[in-house]
Specification:
single chain, Wheat Germ Agglutinin (Isolectin 2), domain 1, Diacylglycerol kinase, transferase, metal-binding, ATP-dependent diacylglycerol kinase activity, kinase
Length: about 575
């Protein structure tokens, strides 16, 4: 009896140990299982969502959090996350995606004509989620003030109207495309063009005159990889305001293909807004030169710039700003393009001939819009590009990019890799040999700005030198003593070494390897001869709305020079 009594506690102790081990194991495994199950369900939903997005006619994008109070256009429930269409602005809950595809049509880029010629179209109303501070076109009171799905917005003219103000006459009323009618390509225009091409008629001018006076349709070319990566957001905002066929992502389609849309428009009517850095602008201007080679001169567009890059010197010169970070609404950008003045920009041919036997010489040809340089600034650009190619994800911010440039500039102040440049090169301006002082760099300028916002040729502005112009067929050639001298010029504490102005520049690199750059594209160059000659003009748009003091003085000087030229003629 005593043995049986003593055998009880050990078995209960073993049971307690197993129970503790079991619940400990459950507490460890259960969260892992739940996490894996949730991850599986999330990935499954993502696959289903991508499949719907791929098959849909809407340009759906998913967001984890809407930026303003949003209601599902299908079930009318308040939603924090869901999908929205970048073209028509439709917002839906994830579970309502398929219903939205069945019941709501997206913006039509081209009307179905059935052989008929259309010159107008009705409004396309979508209910709910109207823009903040919008007003009813009927009663002029604010729309979207109630906490529910309410009021209507036309996807073309962006007019809004209250539920109670919506009348049958409004539903059938012709849409006049609102404030930006002069920039929008109407869907019925493209359908009529399609019919005319089938009939082998190409008189687009008469067709356009019947639609709208002073029609200057715009084409948006956005580089989503430029500078601060704002291109993706801008694409959606422009698609809302314009015909989606006018908006192109340059990471998916080349400028040459996108610009073929100009051939469907009246002669000399199109305008192009390039959203990107100076490199993207040069890419687009090269594509426009290809249009000239193809015999499409009559369709050449005028080019405006929305600066998304790091330097943006060409944008600064044409008064479009030093950089865009979303501070100006997209609507204002389109107004600026409508009000901009047309100007001509000199473009230059940079020919680099490597030294060697006559039949073994290698020839490199570049097109220059901004500047050519040899020396410390080219070395900074070369180091920057080398590191950006290795880790591109780290260079997604304009501030970080400029900080990296500053680091390499400081390093060169100590190392001085480009010293004694005057012993390594010979410089000729219009065939005349120039005696060089003890320099580290030579910069050949076509525009007023250089190095991310510095007016290099003017320097401190205390000496009576003619201002640099972008349309006079002349290049300004300046020298710098080193990276520290460049920094002094940037903050207007020093003047550059002004070597002269010329129509043709020839530079001979004798027997060493030096960094060079054309418009921010750097490379290391051995012994060679660099020849810069005038190539052509580009049709650009100058934003005359907002100017700095430097810009105003530069423009007044240029206008005075033009007036003097006219008087002489």
């Amino acid at each position: 009896m005593e043995g049986e009594e003593n055998s009880g506690p050990p078995s209960s102790g073993v049971f307690a140990d197993w129970s503790l081990a079991f619940w400990t194991l459950c507490s460890v495994i259960l969260p892992v299982v739940i996490t894996l199950w949730c991850s599986f369900q999330r990935s499954r939903r993502q696959v289903l969502r991508r499949d719907i997005f791929r098959k849909s006619k809407h340009d759906w994008h998913y967001t984890d959090l809407f930026g303003q109070p949003t209601y599902c256009c299908v079930c009318a429930q308040h939603i924090l996350q869901g999908a929205f269409c970048n073209c028509c602005g439709l917002c839906v809950h994830e579970g309502c995606l398929k219903k939205a595809d069945r019941h709501f049509l997206c913006k039509e880029i081209m009307m179905r004509s059935n052989g008929e010629v259309h010159t107008s179209m009705a409004h396309r109303w979508i209910r709910g989620n109207v823009p903040l501070c919008s007003h009813c076109v009927v009663c002029k009171q604010q729309c979207g003030t109630q906490p529910k799905l309410c009021d209507y917005r036309c996807v073309w003219c962006q007019h809004t109207v209250h539920d109670e103000c919506m009348q049958n006459s409004l539903k059938s009323e012709k849409c006049r495309f609102g404030e930006f009618r002069n920039l929008i390509i109407p869907p019925y225009y493209l359908s009529t063009i399609n019919q005319m091409r089938k009939d082998k008629r190409i008189d687009y001018g008469k067709l356009a005159s019947s639609y709208c006076k002073h029609w200057t349709p715009i084409i948006i070319l956005a580089n989503t990889r430029s500078g601060n990566n704002m291109g993706e957001t801008l694409l959606g905002e422009f698609k809302i305001l314009l015909n989606p066929v006018q908006v192109f992502d340059l990471s998916k389609i080349s400028p040459a293909k996108a610009l073929q849309l100009c051939t469907l428009l009246p002669y000399n009517s199109a305008r192009v807004l390039v959203c990107g850095g100076d490199g993207t602008v040069g890419w687009v201007l090269d594509a426009i030169d290809e249009m000239k080679i193809k015999g499409q001169e009559r369709y050449i567009p005028q080019v405006a710039i929305l600066p998304l890059g790091t330097g943006n010197d060409l944008s600064n010169t044409l008064a479009w700003g030093a950089g865009y970070a979303g501070e100006v609404p997209v609507e204002q950008i389109l107004r600026n393009v409508m009000e901009a003045d047309g100007i001509k920009l000199d473009r230059w041919k940079v020919q680099v001939t490597n030294k060697g036997y006559y039949n073994l010489r290698k020839l490199k040809v570049f097109t220059m819009n901004n500047y050519f340089s040899i020396g410390p600034d080219a070395l900074m650009a070369l180091n920057f590009h080398a590191h950006r190619e290795k880790t591109p994800s780290l260079f997604s911010s304009r501030i970080i990019n400029k900080a990296v440039y500053f680091f390499y500039g400081t390093k060169d102040c100590l190392v001085q890799e480009c010293k004694d440049l005057n012993k390594k090169v010979e410089l000729e301006l219009d065939g005349e040999r120039i005696d060089l002082p003890n320099l580290e760099g030579i910069i050949v300028l076509n525009i007023g700005y250089w190095g991310g916002g510095c007016r290099l040729w003017e320097g401190m502005g205390d000496e009576p030198y003619p201002l640099a112009r972008y349309d006079d067929g002349l290049l300004e050639v300046a020298g710098v003593y080193g990276s520290f001298h460049c920094a002094q010029i940037q903050v207007k504490l020093a003047n550059p070494v002004r070597l002269g102005q010329a129509h043709t520049v020839r530079l001979i690199l004798k027997n060493s390897k030096m960094p060079m750059q054309v418009d921010g594209e750097p490379w290391a160059q051995g012994p060679c001869t660099v020849t810069i000659t005038h190539k052509t003009h580009a049709l650009m748009l100058y934003h005359s709305g907002e100017q700095t003091d430097d810009d105003a003085s530069s423009m007044s000087e240029q206008e005075h020079t033009r007036e003097q030229t006219d008087e002489d003629i």
